[in-house]
Design a protein that fits this description.
The protein is an all-alpha fold. Strands 1-2 form a two-stranded parallel ribbon. Helix 4 packs across helix 7 and helix 15 runs parallel beside helix 21. The two termini are 27 Å apart.
Amino acid sequence: MSDGYVTVAQCVEGLPIGRFAWELMICGFICWFLLGAINESTPLSFSFISTEWAPSGQSAAALAAALALGNFLAVLVGGWIADRHGRLAVIRPALLMTICCGMVMQAARTFFQAVAARFVLGLASGGLLGVMPPLIAELMPSQHRGFYLTIWCSGWPAGGLFSIMVGCLLPSLNWRAFYTITLVPALALYLCTKAEMLVESPRYLYMAGRREEGYNTLLDMYDAENLPLPWAAESIAVTCGPAPSSSADGGIFGMGTGISGSTASKNTGISRGAVTALLAIAMFFVSAAAQSMKLWMPAMLVAQRADEVNEAHAHPQAQRDFSALGFSGAGSFDSFADANLRGLGIRRIRWPHQFHFADGPKALGLLSMAEAPYMLPEPDYSVVLVLAQAYIVEIIGVIVCAYLASWINRKRMVQWPLVMASFFSLASLGAAEAGSPLLCGPLIGLQLVAQIASLSFLQVFTSEHFPTSQRAKATAVVQFAAQLGNFVMPIVGGFVVQKVSAAGALLFFSGLYLLAWIATVRLPLPTGREQPLHDVDEPRCQRDGGQRARKRAALSTYQTF
C-alpha cells in the first residue's frame, strides 16, 4: 500500500521510547508551563505586584480579555499555517514573537499600552495551543501514547502555580519584572528547538513531498537513540491516497467533493463535521466549567469570610472570640469586610446567611469580565491558598491519570472524568458552604484533575481521528472552542450570580460537565487504549479493494496446501 518498502509511519512506530521521547516531553512541558503562567491567574497576581495605574477589577479584566482575544485570532491562523507550511513554521516564529513581546512590555508606560502589549502577546503565543499537541502526537509511536501525551500537560497547572506564587511571595515586584520572569520559558523552549530537541514532523514532511527533509529528520530521531535507520531513503514513503491539496480531501468538516464525511470518519456512522462540532462543544463546556469554578469558588469563600466577620461584629460574644484570635476594634472588621466585598463588586450585607452576598457583580460588559473576582483591592491570601492547593493537587493528578491511561481505554478516560468533575464541583460547593477553605482547595484540585484529564484525552482523540493533512486545523478548532469557553462563561456566570445566587451559579457550572459528557457520548471514541495515526485518507474503493486482494491472496495460499 505504498510506493516504497515501508511507510514513514512504520519508521516512527519502530522508534524505541528513550532519550528522544523524553526530550519531547520536556519541550511540551516547557510550552504548557509558559502558556499556563501567561493565561492562568494573572489578574490575581496583579493584586500583589505594583503597577503605574490604579488597580481595579476592570483594569485586570481588560488585561485578561486582551490576551484572550489575541489567543482567539492566533489559534485558528496557527492551525491553518501548520497544515500548509509545517508545525515548526508556527512554533519558532511564535516563540520569537513571545520573546519580543517581553521587550514590548518593558516599553509600556500606560495602562492602554499594557493592554495592547497583552493583545500582541496573545497573538504571539496563541498559535502554540493548536500546534504543539499534534506535533508531539506525530513524533511519538503509538505505544503508551496516552501516557506521553498527558504527562506533559502538567506544565499548565505548574505555570499557573508559579504565576500566583511569584506575585504572592514578591509583593514589591514591578509588573514588567513579573512578565520578564514569566516569559523566560519562551527563551528556553526556543533554544530547545535550535538544539533540535523539537523537530519537524516527518509525517508532515513526507506528506508534503519534502522527502529529503523527512528522511534527515528520521535520521536525527534514530541518532538520538544511538540507533541506525535501517531503511534507505528511496524505500520510505507515505501510504497511498490523494495529495493533501486534492479535491478528494474531505476537510475537517467533511465537505469535500471526493470523499464523504462519513468515509473520512472511518465509517463510524458520523460525519467528520459532526465529530468536529461535538469535540468543539465538549471542549467549550469543560473549559467553561473549570474556568468558572476557579473564578467564583475562591470569590465565594472570601465573601463568606466577610459575612462571618459581619456576623461576629453583630454579636458581642463572637466579637470577643475573634478578638482572641488577634482581631481588635470595629475598624478591623469593617476594613476587612469592605475591602474584600468591594474587590468582588458585591454589596455589603449585614445579615449572616452566607449566600446572601450573591447580589452579583456590578459590571457585566464584555471587557469587564464580570469585575474579575481574582482582582482584589487588597491582597487576600485565602484565595491564593485555595488556588495553590488546587494547582498542586492538579499537577499530581495529571501524573496519576497519565499512568492510568496504560490500563483504561480512551472512552472511559474521556467520559468518566467528566462525571467525576461534576461530583467534585458539588463537593467543593459543600466545603465552601461549611466554610472550609483547606478542604475546598483540594476538592477544586480534584475537579481540575478530572477536567484536564478529559481535555487531554479529547486532544489525543483529535490527533488520532484526523489525518496529518488536517490534524493541526482540527486541533485549532477545538482549542478555539476551549478558549471561547474560558472567555465567555465568566460573563454568563456573572449574570447567573446576579439573578440567582452563588450556590445556583456553582450548580450551573457543575452541570456544564454533564452537558460535555452528553456531547462525548455521540463521539466515536475508541474502546481500545492506543490507536495508530493515519497520514492521508484512503478512498473507500481502495480500502475495499485492498481487503479483497488480501482475502484472495490468503485463499490462494490456503489452496496451495
